[in-house]
Write a structure and sequence with these properties.
Elements (H helix, E strand, L loop, with lengths): L3 H12 L2 H4 L13 H19 L3 H9 L11 H19 L4 H9 L13 H18 L7 H14 L1
């Protein structure tokens, strides 16, 4: 993949953190992908789009990697749709130093479900749309069928080992 080395450098500090690695044990949108799989997938897609658009790809990748940040499994649909972005931001802020852009990405990635939390930055909007794409691919069972996800799976295995 064209940008994988640059992407790895952009997220290295975060992805090497044991708390982030622990999200590999949590389920996300389906049994096809763990939370960490979803975060890395969304982060990489966001990185590539922002890089090609001349936006801040590094902050986009970091914000996307933490957009659903949590350390425990949650099953409530109400929690997931309406409150998890604020809770993810609060928890991420306790563990990491985040830029305003990264904070906006995490807080507003659920737009338009969170109608009044419109993304402030172009990068936030990119992550928002990348998240919808990645979640859809996971729910439809197509996550593991793309070249991108196969390559990212190798990346996740390398980090966990």
């Amino acid at each position: 993949m064209k940008y994988i080395d640059e992407f790895n450098q952009a997220i290295a500090e975060l992805i090497e953190n044991p708390i982030v690695q622990s999200m590999d044990k949590l389920e996300q949108h389906s049994k096809n992908a763990t939370l960490l799989n979803h975060l890395v997938y969304t982060s990489y897609i966001s990185y590539v789009i922002c890089k090609r658009l001349g936006l801040n790809e590094n902050n986009a990748a970091r914000g996307a990697l933490l957009h659903d940040f949590r350390t425990k499994d949650t099953k409530s649909i109400i929690y997931n749709i309406f409150t998890h972005s604020k809770l993810a931001l609060k928890e991420a802020n306790t563990h990491f130093e985040l830029t305003k852009l990264e904070q906006d990405i995490i807080k507003k990635h659920m737009w338009p479900a969170t109608l009044f939390l419109f993304p402030k930055y172009k990068e936030s909007f990119v992550v928002c749309m990348a998240d919808k794409y990645c979640a859809t691919m996971e729910m439809l069972g197509l996550y593991k069928k793309t070249k991108t996800t196969r390559e990212l799976s190798k990346f996740n295995i390398m980090l966990a080992g």
